[in-house]
Amino acid sequence: MNWPSSRVEERAWVARGRSGSRADRMLRTINVSIPPRIADLQYDPTGRVARSHEAAVIAVARLEAGYGAHLAPLADFLLRSESVASSKIEHIDAGWHAFGKALAGGKASAEAQSQLAAVHALIAMVDAAGDGPITLDLILRAHAMLMAPDYYQARDAGALREVQNWIGGSDHSPLHAMYIPPPPEFVAPLMDDLIRFCNRTDLPVLAHAAIAHAQFESIHRFVDGNGRIGRALISAILRRRGLTERITVPLASAMLADTTKYFAKLGDYRRGDVDGFVDYVAAGTLDAAAASEESARALASLPALWDERARPRANSADAALLDRLLGTPVLDADAAQQITKTSDASTYRALGRLTAIGILEPLSTAKRNQVWAAVDVLAELDALSAAIGRRMLED
């Protein structure tokens, strides 16, 4: 259907100092992209896009009503999966060993802390959207959480950008940039317009979330962190609209499968192809929901497999840990003792036995402040992302 494209304006560019190449310093004009106002626009998919949209919504509803309602640990698992994949799109990948340490509050790498911050930002946005309207303040607070681990970025986090930014090209100027967002004076009014759009209830739900994401990325309101907050906005709108109540659709894994296609679809949206972007998000959602059901079945089977491997005595520390391991796949000694409600020695013996048979794995070699992880659960994070990626590449 018809959708207004972003307009392009030529603007003067003044080089910042003497950094960069001669071409950077000689750049005098740039072409900025100014998105349209969309708060009051109507959108109704038709034909194949409508069928794809409907199938995706049904798949999410089935996942929510089935495993989402009856497998409590699935909610945390999918939320972590979405946050990790969203970070990977930005080339932030600590690996699940380091991410597990950060998750348990242990000393971890900067990348792991950044991935954990993405989890916290996503939780904040989704939880708040379930309780009330999506607000600019919510987005700002989530961005501050996201950027908190980076000392230099944190100082400017949670605020509208006041500089011209760009995507791709040179580090020193918008020379050969893939996309140049609107100048900073457009950001506040465009975000006000987008917030109005986000809180509408008269649009097809998945299309609503998809368009909001594409518009947010087009405004590019922050200096850094736009992608992760923009993808979290999809989950927030799905929660706000009531399609999800417990689960988070790991859509970022679908985008991660082919980032060139993802960025190209965003570019098409800016040229007015709203149907193409909605169809792309619907296909990714359908694949993500189907793969999530497979992961849910794998997770649900783990307690029985662990019991068969460990054969714990009834009411033992081993049995207590196994009973809680699916919901607490990463834990330190204090968390383990809170679960077992036994002595330090008994808890450590249980941890040692489960480690010896391969159910747990230490995430560090240090003896102090040690963290253990349920190998099968964290490995499933990678398996889910890979499964979604394979489905997307086969489409």
Automatic annotation (TrEMBL):
One of its GO terms (molecular function) is ATP binding. ATP binds at D224, G225, N226, G227, R228, I229, G230, R231. InterPro entries: Fido, Fido-like_dom_sf, Fido_containing. SUPFAM superfamilies: Fic-like. It holds the Pfam family Fic. It comes from the Bacteria. Residues 134-283 form the Fido domain. The lineage of its organism: Bacteria, Bacillati, Actinomycetota, Actinomycetes, Mycobacteriales. Keywords: ATP-binding, Nucleotide-binding. The active site is at H220. This is Fic family protein.
